[in-house]
Amino acid sequence: MNVIPGVDPEDFSVTSETEVRTEELLINMGPQHPSTHGVLRVVLRTDGELVLEAIPHIGYLHRCAEKIGEKVTPRQFIPYTDRMDYLAGMNMNLGWALTVEKLLGLEVPEKARHLRVLIVELNRIASHLVAAGTYGLDLGSFTPFVYCFREREKILNLFEAVCGARLTYSYITVGGLMADLPSGWLDQCEAFLDQFEPVIDDLHDLLSVNHIFVKRTAGVGVLSRELAVDYGCTGPVLRGSGVDWDLRRDGDPFYTRMYRDYDFEVAVCRDGKYPQPSPPVPTEAVLGDCWHRFFVRMVEVVQSVRLVRQAIEKYRLAEGDIGQPIKLNQKLPPGEVYLETECPKGQMGFMIVSLGEAIPWRVRARSSSFCNLSVLPELCRGCLVADVPAIVGSLDIVLGEVDR
Amino acid sequence: MAQWLSDWLTLSPQWEWVAYLTVALLQAVILLALVMTAVALATWAERKVAGRIQDRLGPTRVGGRFGWLQPLADGLKLFTKEDLIPANADAVLFRLAPYLSFAPVFGVFMALPFSDGWVAHHFNTAAFFILAVLGLEVFGIILGGYASGSKWSLLGGMREAAQVVSYEVPLAFSAMLPILLAGTMDLVAIGEAQRGWFWNWFVFHDPFTFVAFWIYVICAVAGTNRAPFDLAEAESELVAGFHTEYSGFRWSVFYMGEYAAMAAVCGLGVVLFLGGWNGPIPVAEWLFGPASSTSPIVNFLSQLLGAVNFIIKCIIGVVFMISLRWTLPRPRIDQVMSMCWKYCFPLAALAFLGATLWVLMLPDGLLGQGHPKASTCEQSVMVTVERIETP
Amino acid sequence: MTGPDGMAILFWLFAIVTCGGALVVVLSRHIVRAAVGLILSLFGVAMLFLLAGAEFVGAMQLMIYVGGTVVLLAFGVMLTARRPLLPLSTTRDQWLAAVLLACPLTVILVQAALSYAPTDSVSAQVDAHSGVSTPVGMLPVTPARLGMALLGFSQDNHRPDGGEVSHGDSGYLLPFELISVHLLVVLIGAAYLARREVPSGMTPRDNQGQLQ
Amino acid sequence: MFSPITPAHYLFVGIVLFVTGMICLLTKRNIIAILIGVELILNAANINFIAFSSPVLFPKRVPPLVLDGQIFVLFVMILAAAEAAVALAIALHFYSRFGTVDVDQGDELKG
Amino acid sequence: MSSLSLVPQLLLIAWMLPLASFVFIFLTGSFLDRRGRASGFIATAAIAGSFLLSVVAAALWFGYYPLDSNHQASSHPIRPLSGDWYTLAEFGSIKLALGYYIDALTLAMYVMVSFIATLIHIYSFGYMHEELHEVNDPQVILGDGTTLRRPGRFARFFQYLSLFGFSMLGLVIANNLLMTFVFWELVGICSYFLIGFYVERSSATSAGNKAFIVNRVGDFGMVLGLAALLTSCGTLHFDHYQTTNGAHYAGLFFYAKAIQHPASELEPAEGSRSEDSQSNPETPPVTLSGPKGLTYGLLVLAGLALLCGCLGKSAQFPLHVWLPDAMEGPTPVSALIHAATMVAAGVYLVGRIYPLLTPEVLIVVAVIGTITLFMAATIALTATDIKKVLAYSTISQLGYMMLGLGTGGWVAGLFHLFTHAFFKALLFLGSGSVIHACGTNEMPQMGGLLRKMPWTAITMLIGCLAIAGAGIPLWAGFSGYHSKDAILAQVYLFHTTNRFLGWIYYLALVSAALTAFYMFRLWFLTFIGQPRNEHIFGHAHESPKSMTVPLVVLAFFAVVAGWSVPGTHWSLSALLEQARVTPLLENSQVPLFGNVVIPHEHESHEAQIHQLVSLEAFTAGILGFAIAVVFYGARWLDPAKVCQRFFGLYRFLLNKWYFDELYSRLFVRPVTWVASVAAWIDRAVIDWTVDHAAVAVRSLAHLDDWLDRILVDGAVNRLAAAIYGMGEWFRQWQTGRIRNYILWIVVGLVSLFILGSIYFGLGMHLVVGAS
User: What is the value of ipTM here, to two decimals?
Assistant: First the structure.
């Protein structure tokens, strides 16, 4: 073979010519971004609009809540739990109170039980309303946000009448509740429920079945059943993937007996259908996508309304008092206890290790938002930048709970 | 008018240009005032309509019960805010961008007729001119996005560029239909061609124009960057898109551009499809008779009525766009683009083809009653030639 | 137009805009500013077209050139721009060569422009049949005429006696068709060249299939 | 000299555009800047076409070109748009291959 | 004429609706498939629209030309509407156009085709519902042993159905043979597509190919016929037509007429038309076009050639072999295309070009029809595949139609076409229903289905009765009774006038008995007796409404299609009578066979002939039915034993008269033999020569190589080194930097300008002034 002197055949080797390399961008989404729901920071590595990688950075709201819990008595710790998931303070209170009661072997009177159900389910509605409203906002629809917050305000008014606070309630406490309901409160609550139920349909019209909304959420950020379980996702995120799991039904007996004579359905998609009444699932939706996660919350709202109505009835019929809070410096029996409750964001667990003093030796909290957020990199890989808010919003995290 | 001014000031011929300049500036100021009024009204309407939709009242404090003066208050607030220029930004381009965005929209009103003959400059190719000038708005936004020196801004600018350039195509295509039906690009002539009852409006001319009208609506919303197509400033995704780094007066200039563009596309749509200054019922003709045979005053009244008509239709259009914004979520950028290329563009092309065939096959309309003015290209040429040769 | 004097004012205004834009293009070292200069320049050119009575072409200039081509350029700039943007400086000898070449060229061109005296005798068209002479330039150039010319009916040869529009005498049907085909080829070619393959496993819908 | 406007005035604008475009071609290293220079030169040609086809600029309202001038301008614009599209595609390709837009880097075909 | 002038427009829309549906489904099919039945609804709506428009058009027509009892046009002279919609091209008098030729026949065909097609569209909703989802095709075994899974093709099916509807209607309405031919081929291609609908099954594809190729044989003849007519007459229009420059020209019918009546050659128009043209001064004079080279012999040849096409399309002997295989397609297709409409197109075309057919050709038609009719009936006796039985029965019935037409029974033949369309579509749909329920075509696997599928069974029984010609003699009966008796009467008349062709009548009569036998054999085997396959029986079920409703509708028409509307004389045969064309038969003498006479059809209507034939046919039918009862109904005799007894005959029939083998021997084997001989020659002679030549060349090359290296290379290398050195020097200029190149361009430009200025002065007239 004749070789031209001075020319290396390797120089003519053909490289891939069809691929145009665009600049990879590293984008900081947050901690001051409008749609990260707080001080979350997500670092996006994008290729144009395509997200190659999304890494959440957390810790901006860390307040050593667990460590504080090891320095104060259980009743003193109640206000700190308020500030974990500050959108569902009642549920946080309840989780902590139940854990301590389990350690103490304490059971609250019947009337207190129904009042607790009433309050936490009302708070669940409030929390889901925030989730739905801000989710609409994430997708560029402002009006549902206003609608949701209007309804939530009414719930907060009710809470204010009960405990004087609108956000950090410290209402449910170890051994019972801080106060009984004011007179006429139940009628106000029923009036609220009556006017609230039609609003749910409005929200469905504006969001769940809105064509653009479905286009934006259906098939986006699909979280498979296995992945959801592997990552320890809980709550609506888990149920959105089709796992039929709700601690109110499947949890620790100490917790589930609170709901023992209540009638409700777990909001999960069975055979392509959700508990009625709810609009049909759009054909584009894939189980485990953003739409399902969103829709589970909407369905749960309906179920919570049912629960609240039942609780009102039962509370009216129940006799006796609402229980007595334990003493501030009540000694705890030595031992170790862990209890998870079904909070609006997922399963919130508290763990106490006691050496027999009034102050626990160790306190830990298992945060649902934290686990749910951990799946974000998996969901965001390969999506578009515009999908990131949709996915983050569908996880419905509260940074106060993530960072504690 | 310039001649009159020159005579009045008794300017010597070499200084006549001063008169021209003065008159031109005066006209520009009048037009600007008009545009700014429209912008102010639109921002007010935006707040009020949003309030209504969201079960709120909207502004109520400034300027009486209805918050009439809210735009003024907003403007004052914005003017007094600090104008920040980020350290990373390209200062010259950063300053230039808002004006580049607003000026073309302003230019649109130059060619937009408000009534029969009420137009700042009577272009032969007004429809085309408006589409072309409207397309320039995108520069300001691209530049603003680029010059801000922020990645979110850059992404917003890129999205804007891709979106607007794409939607211009179906927009122009759907705007071609009335041009085709009227046989001219002259907006005054197009408006006149829809004289009479509302079924003479081009939107009701045939099924294809009806389709094209809705494509025009979609593309106009998309082309002016309004929700649900406000991808370039999607606050939940790109913080605030191209104007993330803008504040104060420069930011408000961007917004003026947006609201003026809304009014402009509504105006163009009204002239092209909705009969322009011709009301749904030919009241003006009943009242004043045919335009040619009346005195100047009556003629003026008739034109005034037309302008009122036109403005009412524009207001309806603007309110429609506003209520869209407060009702719908925002689609994703790829969905927006695919909607443009997979649905709007083919549909517009089909509608164009269909309307062409319709005119060819049914030159006298479906019921044989005839179209007001379905002149072919050839005829219009002949008419032009005749008009030239009559003197 | 507002008359000869108004036209002069506008002409000078837009001539300055045009030339100024061109100078910005040459003198700025920053590519984005060069692009802005180009926009200004092309906008001025469009306005000059309008002034010269070529309304349709002016609008086309705005739409295609300013609205299309330059947006494309801006796009390209953004896609290829690194941050911070490196101005690619030019060596002094390049500038020297450029100026050295530009000077004689300018001289020649200016000479040519100055020596052009408008002669009006060129094309008053005399119709052979009727003997009527029609000054072709009197006819306004409407979009309709342009369109007809593109379809093969040239109005330059229009018979003033109202006779038939002559067919294909000096129309531009063939170039029009060629341009159309050309555009199609260019579109396909450009799309092919700029085609970008998404890294495998990175399609936006990638993680959808995990459930099925 | 300032008025009335004659074709020569337009020709001067054209000359400025042409010469600046040429200098742009000769001095810029950025591939897109070179493209910009080409656009300037094409516009210089367009201005001349329009100047010779505009009745307004001629005292007797009889320009040498009427339709031809305007139609050629249209063709030039369309070709310029096409050229810009292809050139940009090439530029993107160039950029992806060499990681820069400096045309001097693309001298693989040098002898 | 105001009401009539709407008719072509209506039919045009009716014709275009399926096309629109086809185009729409074609463009959006993949989208629609995901949305379920949308494509089906579109196609059905289109064809149903066609049907409604056809009915309206027919109403307009018959409102203008009411049917009269004495078969005479009463109020107006009946005049077919003919004209062109769209002109493709014109070469002088030759005009290629899409046009319409509308008479009662066209309208009846339009209504019938669109009606049956509508029903079958509806039926297909049920039958093809599997195609809505992913289909598992058990008949296709893939390489890895699994069965094929493929996406459903619901939309594609309806897309083809729509295309077929369009093509068939176009074929019917064509006003010239060229258009006929185009749509003739289009229906052929639709048939090809639909036979091969299950494209993964090799049997389906080969059946499709077979149908296509066999049809090509016939179409080849048809093309020859077209060429003959075009060259000799200069036109392919049936009727008079007008070119765009306004000249009127005569059509084919006129030329054929002129051949028959040389005296009238120079008259502008024939028959009623000439009167009409005299009475109507607006009718312009007609000019004769073309070289007028048409002779009687040429007309005969052209007729025979065109007949080839008809034989292929209508599956007549010897081109009948494709139709049974075509049953590979889905059953609605078999019903629509391969029973009711497309295969009848051959018969229709014979009817349409009847004025062009000389008596010689008609005799050929009659003979071929007879052979086909008998042969197919015998094959049907032994077939076990339910659809194959019906396929052979279709061939046989088409033979009846051909026979009717060939013996001069124009109305009788076409009448049978219509009635057959109804009851055969019914039978096919019924069989489809059965197949759908059982999942098999084999009748020995069925039995006793009457209980499971009462609707299907009853409607099929009606179909069997109709095809067997059941009826009360001399009074009324199922539709088949009327049409078949009309044909037999005509054949009887023919046989009385031409004794040496008498066997035709007897064969037809025997076949009538056979028809009754095999149809009831089918019915008994399927619906009566003990279930022979419990598994299949267990799964069988009545079909959904969308399938049974068309069955019932068709059953209704299978009963009443032959009746006249009570209280009036309006009937299908009267309707066809109105469209009667008989120009070539007027002297009834066959010039080439002097003693053959084709009788007038009216003579066969005489009571005595009618009664006789009716009774004979009835007897034959009863006989066939009785045998069927003996063998299959009551099972007094075991058919298997009878088969053993006449094993040779049985095998002969079972193998379909060995036609496939015959064609294999005659055509396929010789070709393969020639090919193998050619291959041998190639190997033994040519390859050998080439190989040895190569050896010789190689040794030469070695020599050359040596010379090359020493002499030539030396010189070349020296030269190359010199050029290389030059290149090294030049490449220094090739910097690869674009600006350097531009620099040189500008340098060249400036020097050009300077040079130009020197030569032409500095005034630059070169640029502007000189021109």
Answer: 0.64
